């Protein structure tokens, strides 16, 4: 990927909504039986905000979206703690180039800007997050460990 990478808020890259929503629906739609791509797109579009949660970010190389991540008040409706780093996805063909790390850093910076002192996530690949300072908790979600990082 020799193109310049920019990470922007979804509100500033609305045209990426359907592409990013389709990635997320394909990757995690099975966790919400009966959810359609249309509903997933609506939910993702609701993250097109600035300064309030939920908020999505899009990694763009050239003119094409190549990844996304979100800052969410809750990952699940029953969550008693948050905010959450969620919906981190990078296209398989560009993985390994640091895009996920840049998306995570962007979400962390935004969480700090909004006054949050920690960030939670559930991790399919906990080793990556552990290297970035996230610690394991006693919680699990979707058979994945829940991790937390102090941001201050």
Detailed description of the structure:
With 152 residues, the protein is α+β, with helices and mostly antiparallel strands. The protein is built from four helices and seven strands. It has a four-stranded antiparallel sheet, sandwiched between helices. Strands 5-7-6 form a three-stranded antiparallel sheet. The longest helix has 15 residues, at 99-113.
Fraction of residues in helix:
25-40%
What structural class do helix, strand and pairing data support? alpha+beta
| Major beta sheet, strand line-up | 1-2-3-4
Order of helices and strands: EHHEEEHEHEE
Q: Tally the beta strands.
A: 7
Rounded radius of gyration (Å): 15 Å
Q: What spatial form do the alpha-carbon principal axes imply?
A: globular
CATH architecture: 3-Layer(aba) Sandwich
For this structure, the CATH topology is Aminopeptidase
Integer count of domains: 1
């Amino acid at each position: 990927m020799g193109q310049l990478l920019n990470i922007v808020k979804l509100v500033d890259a609305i045209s990426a909504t359907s592409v990013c929503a389709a990635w997320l629906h394909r990757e995690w739609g099975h966790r919400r039986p009966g959810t359609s791509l249309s509903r997933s797109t609506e939910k993702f579009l609701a993250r097109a905000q600035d300064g309030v949660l939920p908020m999505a970010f899009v990694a763009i190389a050239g003119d094409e979206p190549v990844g996304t991540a979100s800052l969410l008040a809750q990952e699940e409706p029953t969550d008693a703690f948050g905010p959450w780093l969620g919906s981190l996805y990078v296209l398989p063909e560009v993985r390994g180039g640091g895009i996920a790390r840049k998306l995570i850093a962007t979400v962390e910076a935004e969480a700090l800007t909004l006054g949050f002192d920690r960030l939670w996530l559930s991790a399919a690949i906990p080793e990556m997050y552990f290297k970035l300072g996230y610690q394991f908790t006693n919680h699990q979600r979707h058979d994945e460990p829940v991790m937390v990082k102090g941001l201050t």
